[in-house]
Every structure is written in C-alpha cells, then in structure tokens.
Amino acid sequence: MTEQVPFTDVYVDDDIVDSATEVLDSRRYVKGPRVEALEEQFADTCDVGHAVGVSSGTAALYLAMKAAGIGDGDTVLVPSHTFFATVSPVVELGAEPVFVDVDPETYTIDETDLARKAAAHEDAAAVAPVHLYGQPAAMGPITTIAERYDLRVFEDSCQAHGATYRGDPVGSFGDAGCFSFYPSKNMTVAGDGGMLVTDDADLARAARELRNHGRDADGNHVRLGLNHRLDEVSAAVGIEQLSHLADWNADRAAAARRYRDRLADVDAVELPTEREDASHVYHLFVVQVPDRDELRAALEEQGIGTGVHYDPPVHQTPAMRSYLDGVPDLPETERLCDRILSLPMHPRITDEEIDRVCAAIRGFYE
Ligand SMILES: Cc1ncc(COP(=O)(O)O)c(C=O)c1O
C-alpha cells in the first residue's frame, strides 16, 4: 500500500489528555478558571489588554463586529479570497459586504484596491483584513486607509496565531483580532473554539456580555445575546497547545523552507511570497500551478493529501450571490481560483514526506 502524506495533523499527548481529564473530574465545565487562564495567556501572546474566549473563530468575528456596533445599513470592506466566515458575520449583522481584491503575491487584501473602494464607499464603517494562510496583511497601509476613512478594523487572524507584522503580533493592530481554534489551525482546542482580542475595554466588555446571553458581570441580562462561550475542556486543551505554538510555528517555517528549496527549479510552480516586514506562520503552504485539478488528482493517487483554499471565492458562492447587488470586479481573486493548491503542511511533517511531495510534483511536470 502507498504510504500516505496527510494534509494536516492534530497533536494530542498525555499532558493534553491529563488536563482535559482533570476538567472532566472537576465537574466544572463552563465559566471556569481554565477559560480565564487561556484568555490571560492569549492576551499576553497578542500583546493586548483583553482576550475573550468564544465558541469559534466565526463567533469571534461576529461578536467583535456586533460589539463595535456594526449592523443594519453599514458597509464592511472585505476580501473575497478567504474563508466564507470572514464575510458571513457581516451579512448576518445586516451589513453589506463590499469586496476588495487581493494582492496576487501575498494573497492578502490589496491596498490599492482597498483605498479605491474606501473612497468609493465613503460611508463604509469597517474593513476586515485577513492574515491569510498565516501571512500578515499589510497592516501599515491598511491602518492609514482606515484612519483616513474612519473605518473600524477587524483582523481576521484565524489562520495566523503568533504571526507578526513589523514586530507586533497580528490581532493587536485593529479594533479587534479574531482567532479560530478549529482542529487544523496552528493551535487548536481539539474541537471548535475561538478568541477575540482587543485593547478596547468597552468592546471587550460588550463581547463578554454578548457571548453569555447578554449578561453583565453581576448576571443581569443587560442586552440581547446568545450563547457563544468557550468551555473548560476546550480551554484546558488550548492552554497546552498554546505552550507549543512558537515551536510549532518554527517547525512550519522550516517545512516551508524545505518546500522552497526542493521546488525552486520546477518552473511550473509559483511559490508563495513572504512579506519582508512580517513573519509568516504557514498555516498553509499554497503554490500556484497550471493544470491544478490534474496535479491534485495525481498527488491523491500517490497518497498525498492536498487542499484548495479557496475556490469558489466567497462572492461566487450560491449563499452570498443572493446578497450582492452586482458582480464585483475582482480580477486577481478570480484568476487565482483555479491555480491555487495547498500542499501538506503541519509542524510534524517529515523531511522525507516533503521530499516525496516535491518529487511527485516534479514527476507530474516532467
Ligand atoms: C480565514 C478564516 N476566517 C474565519 C474562520 C472561522 O473559524 P471557525 O471555523 O473557528 O469558526 C476560519 C477557520 O475556519 C478561517 O480560516
């Protein structure tokens, strides 16, 4: 049988099992000390004043926007080359997404198109840049544009735990940063979970209330809210995972270097570009290739798992199309769709596995 090269991997060791078991034994499953401890540690990692544990990355984005007052009739500038959940909270809140193209080199929001669309939608309320694949968006120019047009900034950091831009952690630039702890992410709670980080004490308080039935610290229902809490077992796993994050990000970067080295002379393969003023944490290693679907099938036949992130882009999904007034002009987003391929990437991928993937790609194009 061909040996498999898995696309991703989730790390579970005895420490993780023990800390989850401790919570199960304690009978304290929600609103407990582990969520608070993870919040404190995550706030330190992001160098911000507040962190609010929530039930998913989607919930973090939704609650951040809602806590900041985004709602009916507002416009939010968003990329379409991203996961659906960057945009769905905007629509759920009754706001209108205006799609911005991405830079084909970094895959993050294109500053020139952002400036153009911010000028064309002067009443826009916010922008949601995405640190896609683990690469920080250009937060310097984005912040300048946001200040000029008075935009709130919600950083979708769901793929970029521990990444930095000009030395500062992602999530610390905007009004709020939103992280996912889904199993494939750079750190996980081995289930669903997320974190909202912010330096804005009022936004943090509103998000805490909104995640817990609109209750304030005294337990009064002071606003409408649903249940978007993170639970104690998840937080216990998250604390263990966070302690490995820096090492795992370094292992991902080392894997990326080996891919670059082994694929450098395969002309058909366009390797991902790293921003010079940022650290890329390689949630995904995404190359551009011709004949993507054929290559993907050939790799699959050899037991090599791959992914496509994202095709179709959000604006072309059936769910989103019905909310859009017209067809947005996003040439780079559309050009990327049938060229992008995500290669196996996780901290425990071996040199031999990377070499096998690269040999298979080389074989396909020879
Ligand atoms: C860019 C991006 N945004 C938002 C999300 C939503 O996170 P979750 O799956 O935890 O709701 C994800 C992860 O799936 C993501 O990759």
UniProtKB/TrEMBL annotation:
Molecular function in Gene Ontology: transaminase activity
Keyword Transferase annotated: yes
Highest taxon listed in the record's lineage: Archaea
Keyword Transferase among record annotations: yes
SUPFAM superfamilies the record matches: PLP-dependent transferases (SSF53383)
Entry keywords, A to Z: Aminotransferase, Pyridoxal phosphate, Transferase
Family per record: Belongs to the DegT/DnrJ/EryC1 family.
The protein's name: DegT/DnrJ/EryC1/StrS family aminotransferase
Taxonomic classification: Archaea, Methanobacteriati, Methanobacteriota, Stenosarchaea group, Halobacteria
